[in-house]
Specification:
Elements lengths: L1 H15 L1 E4 L5 E6 L6 H16 L3 H11 L8 E9 L8 H15 L3 E6 L2 H8 L4 E7 L6 E7 L7
Parallel strand pairs: 3-4
Antiparallel strand pairs: 1-2, 2-3, 4-6, 5-6
Length: 158
C-alpha cells in the first residue's frame, strides 16, 4: 500500500495534480483538478507498476474501480485522490490542515470537491468539512462499502 501511495503521489499528484504537505511531512493531500492535463498519459505510464503492486488482487481492484465508476460526478470537480496522515501524528488536525488549501482553491475556482472513502469514520470527518454523501456501493468480492461525497462549490468553510 505504501508503494502504491508513493507512486500515486510522485507520478500523479506531483506531476499533474496539486499536493499539500504538512510542515513536518506527516500529512499529505493529493488532488486531481479540472486543470490537470495529461491524466490518461500519466496513468498509462504507471499502469504496469500498479498492476505489479496489486499482484494477485489486480482483477479485484479492477472490479472495484468499475463498481465505483457510477458514483463519480460527470461535471468537472477537484477530486481528492488520496490523503494520509502518519499514524503517530493522527488526531492533531493535520488531515484538515492539508485538505483545507485544496478545498479553498476548488471553491475559489468555482468547482465542487469530490472524494470516495471506505471508512465509516471518515464519512463524519468529511461531513465536518462540508461534504455530503451522494451515493454508496458495496464493492464486489466481499469488499467494503464505499461512499461518494461531494462538497458543493458554494459550501461554507468550516
Amino acid at each position: 500500500m505504501r508503494s502504491l501511495q508513493r507512486l500515486f503521489l510522485t507520478e500523479i499528484g506531483l506531476r499533474i495534480g496539486n499536493v499539500w504537505v504538512s510542515d513536518d511531512l506527516a500529512a499529505v493531500a493529493v488532488w486531481i483538478t479540472p486543470s490537470s492535463t495529461g491524466l490518461d498519459a500519466a496513468f498509462g505510464d504507471i499502469a504496469d507498476q500498479v498492476t505489479d503492486l496489486y499482484g494477485d488482487r489486480a482483477e479485484i481492484a479492477a472490479r472495484a474501480d468499475e463498481a465505483t465508476a457510477c458514483l463519480r460526478p460527470t461535471d468537472h470537480v477537484w477530486h481528492l485522490a488520496t490523503v494520509g496522515v502518519a499514524p503517530a501524528s493522527q488526531g492533531r488536525g493535520l488531515g484538515r490542515a492539508v485538505l483545507e488549501p485544496g478545498l479553498k482553491a476548488a471553491k475559489d475556482q468555482g468547482y465542487a470537491a469530490y472524494l470516495e472513502t471506505s471508512s465509516p469514520s471518515n464519512v463524519a470527518f468529511y461531513e465536518g468539512l462540508g461534504f455530503e454523501v451522494t451515493g454508496s456501493v458495496s464493492l464486489p468480492d466481499n469488499g467494503p462499502k464505499v461512499w461518494a461525497m461531494l462538497r458543493a462549490r458554494t459550501a461554507t468553510d468550516h
